[in-house]
Amino acid sequence: MNRASLHNMYFIAVLCPEELNQKLLQYKLWMKQQFGCVVAMKSPAHITIIPPFWMCDKNANELLQTFLSFYSDVNEIEITLKGFSHFGKRVLYVNVVKNTVLEELQQQAEDYFVRSVTNQIKKDVRPFHPHVTIATRDIAPSSFFCAWDIFSIKQFEENFLTQKISLLKLSQGKWNVIAEQNWSDYKD
To answer: Which class does domain 3-182 fall in?
Structure first.
């Protein structure tokens, strides 16, 4: 029996509002048409808070209950997306402007989920670098340079407010939202 038959992959994110998701989808579609990039199209536009992790099927309900119990004391966050950047030649993304409130939310979420979902969610050793992916993993180095020539001079700036995180599950090759949580629902 393979791992996928007993486990599923999940991650936790701040989703971009649907109108912004549709704008960013146009960039993903362009990358698909020009360079065959499809991996980033498998999820809605988002900022990853807890990176993908495996969870045994028998613990899925416990994960959901833990997720729905998450609370943060940070206020509504205004997120600004501005310009494009990249990680090496493998990831092209929209920048998230430095935001200490978003960083605090991520730290609180990581502390909570690492403590609550032991053995499945581990502390990320990489520093938190919020971004919204346009292309990832399936872009050839030669294609990357062509794409970067275009995106490096392209202007993009959008803002949105959020007070919600989402739990996504990989199902049939696509990331689907299975739960959403307003992180301050339990405030007095």
So the answer is: alpha beta
Whose structure tokens read 């990989």?
Answer: 170
Domain boundaries, the chain: 3-182
- Work out whether the CA dihedral 57, 50, 140, 132 comes out positive or negative: positive
* CA atoms 69, 74, 80, 85: torsion sign: negative
Q: Which residue has the tokens 């696509």?
A: 174
Give how far Cα 131 sits from Cα of 9, 83, 103, Å.
20, 11, 12
Distance CA 92, CA 137 (A): 9
User: Six-digit token pair at 68?
Assistant: 């729905």
Q: What is the mean pLDDT of each run of 10 residues along the chain (188 residues)?
A: 70 98 97 96 97 92 94 94 95 97 96 89 91 95 93 97 97 96 69
Strand-pairing partners, residue 133, are 93
